[in-house]
Amino acid sequence: MPIISLPVELVTEICTHLGIPALHALRLTCRSLFITTADTCRRRAFRSICVLLTTDGLHRLSELSMQEGICEHVESLTVVPELFNGEYNAPYSTFSRWVCIQGALGTSQQEQDSGQVDGKAYYAVYEAAMADHQHALTSATSIILLQDCMRRFVNLSSVGLQYCPTAGTGDICLGWRRFRAQLGFYPDFERERFPHEQIAREHDLAFSLLAEALIASGRKVKRLSTCGPHCYGVGLGRMQLTLEAWASFLSCLKGLSHLHFCHESSAISSHPERLCELLAAVAPSLETLRYQIGPYTSSIYREPFRVRELFEGVPFQRLQTRSAWLSLMIRPILSPKTWRSRPSTIGGVFWSSLAMSLTCNSLYYGR
Question: Which of 3, 101, 195, 204, by CA, is between 20 and 30 Å from 230?
C-alpha cells in the first residue's frame, strides 16, 4: 500500500520514528507528502534550537522567532558561548601552529598549486570573529534579542549552554554555517587540551546573558543546564548580576524540575551562598539534579565532603534518589583494581571508600 494512501495520523506516527534526514527525503518524494508532513517536520526540526553567540547567530534566531508555524514548536533553547576551544587572543605564532590551520594551509596550497599561501588572511578573519563574539557576549543588544525570542517562543521550557557542534554529527546551530564559511577552516580542537580558565569566563558571561534575558522576558522554565559532556563549568559568584537581578533570576527558576549545574572549581569559594540560594529556590519542585565540579584540578580532592555539605538541610520535596554516581579521576598511585572498591553511603549519597584519594566530578540525583 502506498504511504500516501495511509491516514494522516498513521503517516505522522511513521514520521516520528524517522531521523531528520530521512524525514526530509520522504517529504521530497511527492507533493502530497510534502504538504501532509509539514507540521510534523517543523515540530521535529525546531523543537530544540542551538545558537552560536555571534551577531549573525543571534539575528538568525530573531528572524526564526518571528516565523509563524515555527515559534510555537520551540521548547528548548541553548547557546554556544565558546569558540576556538578557549584559544582567545592567540598570537599569530601560536595560531599558525594549530592543526586545523595547518590542514587549511595544506589544502589551499594543493588547490592553488603554490607554496606561497599566507596564513595571515586566516588570522585576520580569526581576529574579526573573536571581536564579534566578544561583542555578542557583552552587548545589551544581545540581551534584548534573546528576551524577545524567549517571549515569542510560547512553549519554551528549557534553556542552557552547549558546545560547538563537532564534525560529522549533523547538529544544527544557528550562525555556525556562516561562521565556518567566513573562517575558511574548520575550528576543530582536542577537547582534552583547553585553557579552562578562559573558557569558564566565557561561560560566566554567557550564563549571565541568559539569566538577564530570562529575567527581562519573564519566562519560566522547567529545565536548566550549564554544561555538556565536557566539564568546563560556570562560577555563580562571577556572574555580572546585581543583588536585585540575582533575586529575580531565582524567581524565574521557581518551578524548575530538571537542573544540570557544572561548578567551575576555582569559583566554588567565591560567593558560596549563591549555590545554596539556587538549590533552595528550586528544591520544592526539582525532580532531577546533576551537579558537577570541573575541571579536574588537584585543588578539589576534598570536594566530595564539601559537596555533601551543600545538600544538607535543602528541602527537596519531589527529588528521589534513583542513582548517584561519581566520575572519578584516579591518582597515579592507585592501581586499576581499586576502581571497583565497594562504595560506602554517607548521608544518602554514595561515596567511594577511597574518597580522599579520588576526585568527585559528577553527582546525579533523579526520580
Answer: 101
Looking at mean pLDDT, say which of 22-26, 333-337, 362-366 comes out highest: 22-26
Structural domain boundaries enclosing 215 = 50-365
300 confidence band (pLDDT: 50, 70, 90) = very low
Let me know whether 98 and 178 are in one domain: yes
Do 99 and 38 lie in one domain? The reply is no
- Shared-domain flag, residues 84 and 25: no
pLDDT tops 70 at residue 234: yes
pTM, two decimal places:
0.77
Same domain, yes or no, for 35 and 140?
Answer: no
Q: Are 116 and 144 in a shared domain? A: yes
How many domains does one find in the chain? 2
Q: For every residue of the chain, which 3-state class applies, written as one string? A: CCHHHCCHHHHHHHHHCCCHHHHHHHHCCCHHHHHHCHHHHHHHHCCEEEEECCHHHHHHHHHHHCCCCCHHHCCEEEEECCCHHHCCCCCHHHHCCCHHHHHHHHHHHHHHCCCCCCCHHHHHHHHHHHHHHHHHHHCHHHHHHHHHHHHHCCCCCEEEECCCCCCCCCCCCECHHHHHHHHCCCCCCCCCCCCHHHHHHHHHHHHHHHHHHHHHHCCCCCEEECCCCCCCCECHHHCCCCHHHHHHHHHHCCCCCEEEEEEEHHHCCCCCHHHHHHHHHHCCCCCEEEEEEECCCHHHCCHHHHHHHHHCCCCCCCCCECCCCCCCEECCCCCHHHHHCCEEEECCEEEECCHHHEECCEEEEEC
Q: Are residues 125 and 69 in the same domain?
A: yes
